[in-house]
Amino acid sequence: MTLAARDLRWGVAGRMIVDGVTLNAAPGRILGLIGPNGSGKSSLLRLLCRLRNVAGGVVTLDGRDIAAVPRRELARRLAFVEQQATTEVQLSVCDVVRLGRTPHRAALASWSEADEAAVDQALARVGLQHRHDQLWHTLSGGERQRVHIARALAQEPSELILDEPTNHLDIQHQLAILTLIRKLGITCIVALHDLNLAALFCDEIALMQEGRLLAAGAPDEVLTEETIRSVFGVAVAIRPGVSGRRHIEYLIDVPPFAVVPAASSAA
To answer: CB-side exposure of 221: number of CA atoms within 13 Å?
Structure first.
């Protein structure tokens, strides 16, 4: 295992947000993290990349406690893409992506051809090479998200953690980004809301509920009609899709409310 958590715990104000989670990310595979809002997905991701300090348990990278890994060394291995990121600084697209090269450069080192090539390749991978010199704040929300994915790719990580990377993206770019992630061939942990996208692109799925890991395994094992109804409170029918992965159809139940007739207008 490359990135793993054992009995991970973290909370705030006496409330456990992540409660005893044990998780393993297999090398070169995509682990999807799903669960209702407030289930602890984002907090877990921040613990895995040491943006928050654990209250209990341990996160390991190749068996080594990441708390003992120097931050610069950790940044050469692991990249994190936030759900949303913003800045008031007037940065161009290439400036943002160049930040991904920071862990690979000495403090006073000059910008190299290899650095520039990594930036250009990262922008090309997310289809934004034509935005190279545009100001970041003039981009759409979806384009900003793609720039931050490019920044992470410029780090040339072995492990990539993404918190809702398809937020703000249209369906074309959702599919393009997840296809790109799948083709990277590196260890990825990605939080997703769309269960069909999770079933289509993830090798394994971890399901969280109220801070605990409820289930983990292959999509066919975790994404069952019974589990989805229990955890998400919706009825579904599951069938094989044309891709060979399962497709989840949401069933619209008629709510048990009496129909109130509209009031008639005054004459």
So the answer is: 11
